[in-house]
Specification:
Layout: E1 2-4, E2 7-11, E3 17-23, E4 26-31, H1 36-54, H2 68-83, H3 86-102, H4 113-124, H5 129-148, H6 177-185, H7 189-201, H8 205-209, E5 216-217, E6 222-225, E7 236-239, H9 242-249, E8 260-261, E9 266-267, H10 272-282, H11 292-303, H12 308-315, H13 320-325, H14 331-345, E10 350-354, E11 365-369
Antiparallel strand pairs: 1-2, 2-3, 3-4, 5-6, 6-7, 8-9, 10-11
Helix pairs in contact: 2-3, 3-5, 4-5, 6-10, 7-9, 7-11
């Protein structure tokens, strides 16, 4: 990227040019389909507009009708690609594939709550409520950003004007120790190493698959989760046990990336097929997702008596409340807890009055009951 006075001009990985301006502590970035020279010219035109606003000679964003299609692309390129992770951008682009046809040729200021409710109803007949909510969340974010950037004077779907569907709270799948051992026995190569790291650290899928050899410190037995790949955008150090260390050492060093895909020249990204095959071989029944390995790690730590603050730090959560969501005691643990409560009030022996009342008699016999003998 070259620097020209107050305007920086660069290009994206796919070859498109963009200008980047920092003005009065605020960043203005625009990806164009123009040549480098014309992109630089557009950047300086934008800079002059901003300077006019400062001098009170013009408006930063002239109010004129803006089509949803056009602004949605601006949102992705100027906001999502700059601030969000690649996986989030990919998810947003997938959601836009469904939003665009419905809101095609609609101006932003004409996107009303009634119109959005129509979209929700149409999509609910096709996909799950969770997926509909994800698309509505993106729509609300786009509209909020349009208002922030003064492309619309009022956001018609702000706040509670549009509500998301209530989602069912699905039970999380937590592996038992035996299930985990069987799963590992039926996984080979890099997948086995991935599963061990996930179960023994609670790291997220993307955090594991983007690890480099420099992130692993065998001297301190820690794994570094870099800020740029962490969901919280904060650096954290995750303790590494012997199982994890051996799992990493078992992988070949072909690249700086630990989970390197020779065919693509990038890190391994899609593990669903391999994970599904391992589950089938292991005979694991029911719904089990890759992310459930993180839930399993959290539950195991809690069951083994690790305090919530420590679990929070290992998992990289901002608050203990988030950690508590990830802790799902298994059914047998709940029954064991109930049994322990019963032990608290159960005496060594209990005198039980047995009603031996005969007709015309008020006599009752007292028998001694010993719980240990039952």
């Amino acid at each position: 990227m070259s620097r020209v006075s107050k305007v920086r001009v660069g290009h994206t990985p796919d070859g498109r040019h963009f200008y980047d301006i920092w003005f009065k502590g605020k960043r203005y970035r625009k990806i164009t389909n123009l040549s480098r020279a014309n992109t630089e010219k557009a950047g300086y035109n934008r800079l002059r507009e901003l300077e006019k606003v400062t001098l009170g000679l013009g408006e930063e964003h002239p109010q004129k009708p803006v089509l949803f299609d056009a602004f949605a692309e601006d949102y992705i390129e100027e906001h999502a690609m700059v601030n969000n992770r690649p996986t989030s951008v990919k998810r947003d682009r997938n959601s836009l594939k469904h939003l665009k046809p419905f809101f095609k040729n609609k101006y932003l200021h004409n996107i009303t709550p009634e119109l959005v409710e129509g979209y929700k109803a149409e999509r609910k007949a096709q996909i799950s409520t969770t997926s509909v909510n994800r698309e509505v969340t993106l729509l609300k974010s786009i509209m909020a950003k349009a208002h922030e950037w003064k492309r619309i004077s009022v956001n018609p779907i702000a706040g509670k004007a549009v509500k998301k569907f209530r989602e069912e709270n699905r039970m999380m799948r937590i592996l038992t120790s035996d299930e985990a051992r069987i799963l590992l026995a039926n996984a080979d190569g890099w997948l086995r190493s991935f599963l061990i790291i996930a179960l023994c650290t609670g790291m997220r899928r993307n955090e594991i698959l983007t690890l480099t050899w420099e992130d692993v410190n065998s001297a301190t037995n820690e794994i570094r989760v870099r800020a740029e790949i962490s969901k919280s955008k904060r650096l954290r150090l995750v303790p590494m046990n012997g199982e994890v260390k051996r799992a990493i050492q078992a992988l070949p060093k072909r690249n700086r990336l630990i989970f390197f895909n020779v065919s693509t020249g990038k890190n391994i990204q899609d593990i669903k097929t391999a994970f599904r095959t391992a589950k089938k071989r292991a005979g694991i029944k029911g719904r089990l997702r890759v992310h459930d390995l993180r839930h399993t790690a959290a539950s195991w730590m809690i069951e083994d008596g690790i305090d919530l603050v420590t679990v929070k730090e290992i998992l990289g959560h901002a608050s203990v409340q988030t950690t508590m969501i990830y802790c799902h005691p298994r059914k047998e643990i709940k029954h064991r807890a109930a049994a322990l409560l019963g032990e608290r009030i159960r005496p060594e022996t209990v005198d039980v009055l047995v009603d031996t009342q005969c007709e015309g008699s008020d006599h009752k016999a007292s028998l001694t009951y010993s719980p240990a003998c039952t």
